[in-house]
Amino acid sequence: MTHFLQVQGLKKAYPATGKTGELVVFEDISFDIDKGEFVCIIGHSGCGKTTILNVLAGLEQPTDGHAFVDGREVSGPSLDRGVVFQSHALMPWMTVRQNIAFAVRSKWPDWTEHQVQSHVQQFIDMVHLQGSENKKPSQLSGGMKQRVGIARAFSIQPKMLLLDEPFGALDALTRGNIQDELLTIMQQTRQTVFMITHDVDEAILLSDKIFLMSNGPRAQLAEIVANPLPRDRTRASMHHDPKYYEVRNHLIDFLVHRSKTYSTH
Amino acid sequence: MPARDSLRSLVLSVLILVVLLLAWHIATIPTTGAQVVDEEYAKLVGAQAATGQKSAFPTPLDVGKKLVEQLSDPFYDRGPNDKGIGIQLAWSISRVGLGFLLAAVVAIPLGFVIGMSRVVFKALDPFIQVLKPISPLAWMPLALFTLKDSNISAIFVIFICSVWPMLINTAFGVASVRKEWMDVSRTLEVNPLRKAFLVVLPAAAPTIMTGMRISIGIAWLVIVAAEMLVGGTGIGYFVWNEWNNLSIANILVAVFLIGVIGMMLDMMFARLQKAVTYRD
């Protein structure tokens, strides 16, 4: 096995009920991700993106097919794969520090309090939340909550990250700032990432490869687009690159027209 | 609420109290006019009351005097039928406390198990549905027969009435812990014990605490009736004993104190509830 992550013939279907036949959400999904690659997956609602991510996370079982990470089949959730949830999923009774420390202690149960706290601080600093360590999630803005979610996922230093539309609920300005932060972090850590997004610009800014899903039911992985922009792209300069509009138009054309009609059958 | 509104409602409260006391006072004003009454009855309720000069129902002032009298020496003990109201209340509170505590020890872990597993929930549901609506006092004869001790029987009755709200609320709270928090725990491979204490318990704590608050309220309602049945000690027995003595003033003092203690118990649990409630 040569690739870090391999997905083979993934299918999710819900069994037939009295009136309707078997409902196939997606099928024949196969792809690879190499170590250090950032992959975004784009598709309309109902194409099963989140289900694919949950299968990779080990939170859901596929009807058919297999997923391998680092040569081992995914059979359940693991500390090897950090997940950032769409709804941030912070524990509201814990402070920012406690939320991250909860993850750190899960990964390294034998660490001393001092080790845990200094590790936690490092990741609070990474997402620029100094000063908010002792706040509860309810006292934070949406962007800050999602930063905590990102810090929590990074703090366990997983082999790969799974991001389920992490910025979907944020306003455009906040989203831009966090994208910049994430980009900086990615350039430093070279994490392997699988991310769901609805935002074409976000995909072009962050990812090396963009997976395009056709519409469900029976959704398929229609295209894999390699990002032609150099890796040191920034949000500020990206749109000056002539290749930017080319790839953006291609992605939008797909979402508007081809995603409906795509079919291999 | 702004301070102005608080003041207004306080003034209104005091006004309502004054009106009530005044109405009570007017209703119990002695009327003149002698009537021929039964001699036995006169002995029982006092000559004044029997001749209609004074109502058998005490005036607010009588009750006030009795209240001061009872509260100035709450812990005297002059034999089995004459103990201070403080001693009687302490008996009731300790029975409620003990029965409630036992119920919590049983209901919260059991509720946890029920809430965690659909199968266990479905298996136990018919038992809970049948046992829950049984009046706790219906258990009293069975308790007396099997436990052979009136004091323990009273505690058992408190136990059985407090157990249901706590059990049901714990199960409900545990079952409705948000899926995303459970998913976080799963992806972090949190072991079951840590998950129970650091995720499920704090997530369900407000619901569990609501169950405890309902339970303590019911327990305090039931203890009065239970003690009337088992007798001997406690505020319920005190009320019954004063009824036999035909001391309406003492009964009213006890009724008032039952209300005050009940309110205090509820406030205590309201505080605890507030302490474990989280804002999302």
Keywords for this entry:
heterodimer; A: 265 residues; alpha/beta; Rossmann fold; four-stranded antiparallel β-sheet; 35% helix; globular; B: 280 residues; mainly alpha; MetI-like fold; 2 domains
Walk me through this protein's architecture.
The complex is a heterodimer of chains A (265) and B (280). Chain A is an alpha/beta fold. Chain A is 35% helix and 23% strand. Chain A is built from seven helices and ten strands. Chain A has helices spanning 49-57, 96-107, 113-126, 142-155, 172-189, 200-206, 242-261; strands spanning 5-14, 23-33, 38-42, 64-69, 72-73, 81-84, 160-164, 192-197, 209-213, 221-226. In chain A, strands 6-7-8-3-9-10 form a six-stranded mixed β-sheet, with helices on both faces. In chain A, helix 2 (96-107) crosses helix 3 (113-126) and helix 3 (113-126) crosses helix 4. The longest helix of chain A is centred in the last third of the chain and has 20 residues, at 242-261. In chain A, 40% of the residues are buried. Chain B has 280 residues and is an all-alpha fold. Chain B has two domains: 3-57, no CATH class; 85-276, MetI-like (MetI-like fold, Orthogonal Bundle), CATH 1.10.3720.10. Chain B contains twelve helices and no strands. Chain B has helices at 3-27, 39-45, 47-50, 60-72, 85-116, 118-131, 140-147, 150-175, 179-187, 192-230, 235-244, 248-276. In chain B, helix 5 (85-116) packs across helix 11 (235-244) and helix 10 (192-230) runs antiparallel to helix 12. The longest helix of chain B has 39 residues, at 192-230. Chain B is globular, with a radius of gyration of 25 Å. The model of chain B has no long low-confidence stretch (mean pLDDT 90). Chain A binds chain B through residues 57-59, 76-79, 81-83, 85, 87, 89, 91-93, 102-103, 106-107, 136-138, 156, and chain B through 180-181, 183-184, 186-190, 194, 198-199, 202-203, 205, 276, 278-280.
